[in-house]
Amino acid sequence: MTSEVSQLLLSPWVLALFGLAIGSFLNVVIHRLPLMLERGWKMDSAEMLGVKIDPPAEITLATPRSRCPACGHPIAWHENIPVLSWLRLGGKCSACKARISPRYPVVEILTGLLFAATAWRFGAQPTTLLWCAFVGTLVALAGIDWDTTLLPDNMTLPLLWAGLVAAALGFTIPLKDALWGAVAGYVSLWTVYWVFKKATGKEGMGYGDFKLLAALGAWLGVQMVLPIVLAASVLGAMVGIVMKITGALREGRYVPFGPFLAGAGIVVMLAGHERVLDWLGWA
User: Fold this and answer.
1) How far is CA 176 from CA 163, 187, 216, in A?
2) How do residues 78-110 score in pLDDT, each as one tens digit?
3) pTM for this model (two decimals)
4) Scanning 3, 168, 186, 252, which has the fewest C-beta atoms within 10 Å of its C-beta?
5) Taking the C-alpha atoms of 69, 73, 78 and 81 in order, what is their torsion angle to the nearest 10 degrees?
6) What is the spatial distance between Cα 243 and Cα 94, in angstroms, rounded to a whole number?
7) pLDDT digits (tens, 9 = 90+) for 229-281
8) Is 266 exposed, middle or buried (CB count within 10 Å of its CB: 0-12, 13-18, 19+)?
């Protein structure tokens, strides 16, 4: 790949368009992956208990074809163009006029903007695509956790190992920083979890949060673990208070921590180590 072609293909504008398309796929992941996991759990549980059940309808990220949940209308290709189709349809199904959630174009636009920001941050180099994959995974995890309070192992663990491998290959940070970042990320929230549980008898977070922070540590380094936790905690508390005041947070429910960890990780990545440490006065 020549320098000119590389500069073009990895430019913020091109990656923004690429991000829109990836955002459309992430919407599918956010919606379907929990359903796929639930189906697998039901099948595995029935097999272990020796109970015969009617197998739930098979679902993958590719099948069945996307349909309107209200009327079953198959979504045509021209109704699935990122952002533009939602705008053209006025946010409604073309067949039954049922409302289509604005979250779909929001996720697409967000992913496009984050891919463009990643290109500005790292420049026109192949590792920019690696960081875009990191960002896309975090967007999907944030959406899934917000909907289901679930951070799937089949996303957090590959993200963790990918961070360690990328460091070992010299693509991101020194391997020592990545390794200790993963350790610090997991152990820190694991410790908070058990201290809180012993003190209150309640679980303050899930094990998926430990694994997600370990993955962020593997990608961003041990020095960034505490800034990520601090930023996520402040933002999560603010959102939780607003939701409580507005009645959006029902009694007995809680705000998942994963989306704020993911968001803080992206902010730290875009800001860079030196700037984050300077903000905290640690430089």
Assistant:
1) 12, 16, 14
2) 888 999 999 999 999 988 999 999 999 999 999
3) 0.93
4) 252
5) 0
6) 33
7) 999 999 988 888 888 888 777 655 778 999 999 999 999 999 998 999 888 88
8) buried
